[in-house]
Amino acid sequence: MKTVRICSILEASMKRLSVACLALLASLTSLPMRAAQQPPADAKPAWSADLNDVRRVAALIPGRRPLRVNILKFAESHRTKNFVIKGEAADPGTQARTVFQVVYPDGYVMVDAGMDLTVHKLIGRGAEEPYFAEQAQQVDKALRGARAIIFTHEHGDHVSGVIRTPYLNELAPKTILTRTQVRTLTTTPQFPEIRLTDEQAQRYRIIDYDKYMAFAPGWALIKAAGHTPGSQMMFITLDSGREYLLIGDAAWHMDNVRKVTGKDAPWIVEDTAAVSDQLKWLNGLSASEKNLVIVASHDDDEHKELVAKKLLGGKLE
User: Fold this and answer.
1) Is 243 exposed, middle or buried (0-12, 13-18, 19+ CB in 10 A)?
2) At what angle are helices 7-26 and 51-58 packed, to 10 degrees?
């Protein structure tokens, strides 16, 4: 798999290097006095992204861009808000279990694949929570009709639909997993029920990239390890010019983004430094990019609002 490279990033890096060299030469005589003021060599963010670079990558593949983005909720988990947003009161809340459908003029791509009832019960950790069988069947039907299936990350409620499925022979050839997602699923899966053997993993299409990757017309993948090692965000520009950023589980609720505050769920192990950097970036985008719709996978409140505003379609096609 060829890794996407962006010339503009290299050029910008060279310019910064030149400026840094000139600044170093100019300050040699005062180096002892200034040295204590310099930041440590490893003082860099745990995660970063540049939206302008992402936009350039999304424009690399020619062709008609998507027409719309649809969402479907197939299950719910009931979590008090203190688990979802650190420091919040233990008020009741609903986490939507969802899939997304990105519709092109000549077909569609599914983002995430849902889960069966067994994995839903594992996610619920013993609690009886709503599972909508009719909607789950709609997810299965949409997966079978998709041109491709890709994932925000490798947790059971997102990937089980292409692992624990009677349609595996049909779905695997068009299912796209990153190498990191495969590594998690073969070595340290969220549940043993979704573990892949090395031989099973080879049935899927495996990709790898450094930071960004052009995936389809108007669509860029953004590597965003943090919630899981294989997490990635999806930047999508519609034919209309409207932009979307599907952020997976970087935030469980948009209040995580608004307050730049992470989760406090003891059953989830994250790279908290990376997630914190992601929340800071998303918070800045939400304030400055009015044409950008940021969508968290589990924020039931946000989904209802976006469907009401017709920014998301509320059913699969």
Assistant:
1) buried
2) 150
Which H helix or E strand runs over 243? strand 243-246
The 10 Å CB-count burial string (b at 16+, else e) for 171-196 is: bbebbbbbebbbbbbeeebbeeebeb
The CATH homologous superfamily for domain 51-308 is Ribonuclease Z/Hydroxyacylglutathione hydrolase-like (3.60.15.10)
Q: What is the mean pLDDT of each run of 10 residues along the chain (317 residues)?
A: 35 35 33 43 86 98 98 97 97 97 98 98 93 98 98 98 98 98 98 98 98 98 98 98 98 98 96 98 98 98 98 98
What pTM value is reported for the model? 0.87
Q: Measure the CA–CA gap between 101 and 119, rounded to whole angstroms.
A: 22
